[in-house]
Design the sequence.
């Protein structure tokens, strides 16, 4: 590995991966360093929405909502395999916000940014609409609007892949233990998780602190800086239950505390419900849903659905810590989801990333690169707005998709013909996960036997090897919970078989 770089990016979440991709595409040499797996923390624990944030309008964050709405369609075009449009149903609760306020909010939501791909909002009669069938009889009127869905962890992976293919070095399970600043460069000490003696020293002309919830700690402990920006660490938890409705729309429910809860179709057989907003008081890397959070989500969903939900119905849950800018707001749900970039050029450039949300990651990365490049003597222009992520080149001319939903449907049909020997459900899953890169995954295979051993139901040796070779998967959890959500469908024995794959292949479990 080379030891001299233009930029060292610390943090393998969505912001770090996005910045590494953008800078690499501008011709800079980049090293991305992540102490765990890519998207191991906050970036795989979102509600998995590409959205403007309808509820942020109540907090008068019109600039943030507009910026996010603008990005929504950019992202849908860039990766139509892992992102797609989603319609949201809001039942009107007469005891909550009045109908005129909801109509006004949806009007603003429809018109704050140009909309080409997504239909606008409208009122519905829940007595006649399919979405009303799962709801309690008291809800007769509602509203429908558009946003988007994203596989959040795969979005991080695809950004890291693109960065790597443009020349970046990506190191996972490698901690940046110390950085020292001089007038024209940084010296960093990197320590692999599996070999504490194998320290590596590299030099970089600039440093990007994209450590998310650890950003303030990194500045203080590793960069030895006293001043830092205050972060508000807010925990968000989600639960997954068996499917509560049969249609493909999501719900947004108004809660009695004036927050909102989403109920979203998830992995074919399930419903995802979330999220909470509570202060996180413990260790940043140790976060889990508590009993009160679980009860809260069950109760809020139960106010609307005919089918009651209890904590015993929860099949899986996940939690993440959101690093939000501390704006002195008392209510965690009202803390801004916007971001701030701080660039210090008194010596070798230091760029710190504070806050942010997954929908605006590309814009954040673009602005970060726009600030950093002049400090490094580069005049390379921005480029990511019209560039597909790996696997997303499904357009008629094999570039960025202009009609994402139609292009993806056409692509699936083509793949089902090309690989007619694949079970249809598996072909569709490959198309969703890998897009056009499924051709790399299946290269050389002419029948189902060519995929090797079926390690777990629907998961073959060839796919795990692909994830190891191309996507930095190093243990079972990487494969079944971040590169996919196959863990929801697997038995304990099947999960163990995936874990044993790494041992049998001689690569070990690097997540231990």
Sequence:
């Amino acid at each position: 590995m080379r030891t001299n770089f233009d930029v060292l990016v610390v943090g393998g979440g969505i912001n770090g991966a996005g910045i590494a991709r953008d800078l690499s595409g501008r011709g800079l040499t980049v090293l991305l360093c992540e102490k765990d797996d890519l998207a191991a923390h906050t970036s795989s624990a979102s509600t998995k929405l590409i959205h403007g944030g309808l509820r942020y309008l109540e907090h008068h964050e019109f600039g943030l909502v507009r910026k996010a709405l603008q990005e929504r369609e950019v992202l849908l075009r860039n990766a139509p395999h892992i992102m797609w449009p989603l319609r949201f149903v809001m039942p009107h609760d007469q005891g909550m916000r009045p109908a005129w306020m909801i109509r006004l909010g949806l009007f603003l939501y429809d018109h704050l940014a140009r909309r080409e791909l997504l239909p606008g909002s409208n009122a519905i009669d829940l007595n006649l609409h399919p979405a009303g069938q799962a709801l309690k009889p008291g809800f007769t009127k509602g509203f429908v609007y558009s946003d988007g869905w994203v596989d959040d962890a795969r979005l991080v992976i695809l950004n890291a892949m693109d960065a790597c293919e443009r020349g970046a070095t990506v190191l996972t399970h490698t901690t940046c233990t110390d950085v020292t600043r001089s007038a024209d460069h940084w010296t960093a000490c990197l320590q692999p998780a599996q070999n504490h003696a194998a320290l590596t020293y590299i030099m970089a002309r600039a440093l990007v602190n994209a450590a998310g919830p650890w950003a303030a700690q990194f500045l203080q402990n590793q960069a030895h800086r006293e001043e830092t920006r205050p972060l508000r660490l807010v925990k968000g938890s989600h639960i997954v239950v068996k499917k509560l409705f049969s249609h493909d729309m999501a719900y947004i429910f108004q809660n009695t505390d004036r927050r909102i809860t989403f109920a979203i179709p998830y992995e074919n057989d399930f419903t995802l419900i979330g999220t909470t907003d509570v202060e996180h008081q413990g260790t940043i890397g140790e976060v889990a849903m508590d009993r009160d959070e679980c009860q809260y989500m069950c109760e809020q969903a139960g106010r609307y659905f005919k089918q009651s939900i209890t904590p015993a119905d929860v099949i899986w849950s996940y939690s993440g810590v959101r690093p939000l800018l501390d704006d002195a707001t008392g209510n965690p749900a009202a803390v801004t989801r916007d971001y701030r970039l701080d660039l210090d050029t008194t010596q070798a450039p230091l760029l710190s990333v504070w806050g942010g949300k997954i929908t605006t990651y590309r814009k954040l990365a673009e602005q970060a690169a726009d600030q950093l490049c002049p400090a490094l003597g580069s005049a390379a222009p921005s480029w990511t707005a019209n560039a597909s992520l790996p696997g997303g080149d499904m357009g008629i001319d094999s570039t960025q998709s202009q009609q994402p939903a139609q292009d993806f449907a056409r692509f699936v049909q083509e793949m089902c013909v090309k690989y007619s020997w694949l079970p249809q459900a598996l072909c569709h899953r490959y198309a969703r996960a890998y897009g056009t890169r499924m051709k790399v995954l299946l290269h050389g295979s002419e029948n189902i036997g060519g995929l090797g051993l079926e390690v777990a139901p629907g998961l073959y040796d060839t796919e795990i090897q692909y994830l190891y070779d191309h996507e930095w998967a190093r243990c079972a959890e990487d494969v079944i919970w971040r590169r996919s959500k196959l863990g929801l469908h697997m038995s304990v024995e099947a999960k163990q078989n995936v874990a044993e794959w790494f041992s049998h292949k001689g690569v070990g479990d690097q997540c231990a």
User: Anything to note?
Assistant: The chain has three domains: 4-42+153-229+337-386, 82-150+232-331, 404-504. The chain is about 30% helix and 25% strand.
